[in-house]
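EI: anyone free to look at a 224-residue chain?
SC: sure, send it
EI:
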Amino acid sequence: MCGRIATYFTKEDVIDYFSLDKIIGEVKERYNVAPSQKIPVVVAGSRIMDHYSWGLLPYWSKDKKIGSKMINARAETLLEKKSFSISFKGSRCLIPVSGFYEWKNKIPYFIKLKDHDVFALGGLYSTWSDPETNEKIKSTCIITCEANGFMKKIHHRMPVIIEPKHFDEWINPQNFDVDGLMNLLTPYEIKEMESYEVSSLVNSSKNENINLIKRKTLKQVNLF
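SC: here you go
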């Protein structure tokens, strides 16, 4: 599962990496983004980055709370579940991140790509309308797959990472090649990734500071 991310890229970095035409909302450096909070997305059929609520809320849902339970979609079964299969057909997105956290034996690790402050996770999105207030909530979830050899040392799952050469293929709403799309939902190249232990202060989403992504050393007792 992927339950915490960091998005400390600059506006210039994300515009360049995703060839963006427009950004909706502010680009803020975040170091401890948790489910239910807003995360950046580049949705199907566009080169526009917006910010959606993390936790997929299907348009047909009657319960607004269901989103909190749907922060991830397993690649192996997403076509079998109505909640995800509908979005997979035409509401696929890229989720810009700088890295993500995972825990092993309650010890937090920060995982990122070498020499990159921004890369893309594969995601799905939906727009839900409150039947009583007509409030519209745009939401998203991160697709996960089986961990590669690198990630298996920390956790048995990892978020799907989409390479730039596949961006157009993934977010093209007219792409109905299911087999081709599913082939993108595989573990990323091991040689491109790095990880290191970080402070347990990341366990609380109330903590938000650049020190959270710093490599923990024996001398690093209190980062704040």
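EI: The first helix runs from residue 11 to 18.
SC: 👍
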